[in-house]
Design goal:
alpha/beta, Uracil-DNA Glycosylase, subunit E, 6-stranded mixed beta sheet, 39% helix
Length: 237
């Protein structure tokens, strides 16, 4: 894969930054607004005294990324706290360690938004931008957020490979691509770990979400996660 480290342009960054500003000010879903703010107002003991982001979270990474990673939503005390996707929670510990092993990140962990993490050739985002109660957005909340994901994928002009973390990320990616005019084949591609689908110019890969429910039980292991990103490298080469 071509080294992308010196290829970010101010125009590309500015365009994504403008979209991020729109995302950060979104108030479309009253239930999610209430939940994200309530989570910030009553943090667990280990985070008491921290200044929570408590707003919608935009994507993060290389504007010229070959690879987009689509998760479910910010964690109430992860990205809702830090303001950056998959930052400050156990799922992020797994994700960024794997991205570092695969050469997509300059460091193996992400604990806060100013910790120096950089992504090379990768962009991390989610189908929903606010922390949802019980990690379960409603269909309406999902649909309110979909235009943001579609626009990010559109602005990531070099991106042709998408890794979907979990069935919700898979569904969100398919729906966002459909908004961009890309139609999946029939029958509709089904999610599974290692599943692959080709939708117009994009290749979609399925990966179990690196949630504690999956990593603690061994449903998702480091070699399994590494295998998905190795395959993403192959598809992007």
């Amino acid at each position: 894969m071509t080294d992308r480290r010196q290829r970010t342009t101010p125009t590309e960054t500015g365009t994504l930054d403008r979209l991020a500003g729109q995302i950060h000010s979104c108030q479309r879903c009253p239930r999610l607004v209430e939940w994200r703010e309530a989570s910030a107002a009553a943090p667990p003991r280990r985070f008491q005294g921290e200044d929570y982001w408590a707003r919608p979270v935009a994507g993060f990474g290389d504007p010229q990324a070959d690879l987009a990673i689509v998760g479910l939503a910010p964690a109430a005390h992860g990205a809702n706290r830090t303001g950056r996707m998959f930052t400050g929670d156990r799922s992020g510990d797994w994700l960024y360690a794997a991205l570092h092993r695969a050469g997509y990140a300059n460091r193996p962990e992400s604990v806060r938004s100013d910790d120096g993490l950089r992504l090379y050739g990768a962009y991390v985002t989610a189908a929903v931008r606010c922390a949802p109660p019980a990690n379960r957005p409603t269909p309406t909340e999902r649909d309110n957020c979909l235009p943001y994901l579609a626009r990010e994928l559109e602005l990531l002009g070099s991106c042709r490979t998408i890794v979907a973390l979990g069935a919700f990320g898979w569904d969100g990616a398919l729906r966002a691509l459909r908004q961009l005019g890309a139609k999946a084949s029939r029958p509709r591609p089904r999610f599974g770990h290692g599943a692959e689908a080709e939708i117009a110019d994009w290749k979609l890969l399925g990966c179990y979400h690196p949630s504690q429910q999956n990593t603690f039980t061994g449903r998702l292991t480091e070699p399994m996660l590494d295998g998905v990103f190795a395959r993403a490298r192959e598809l992007g080469s």
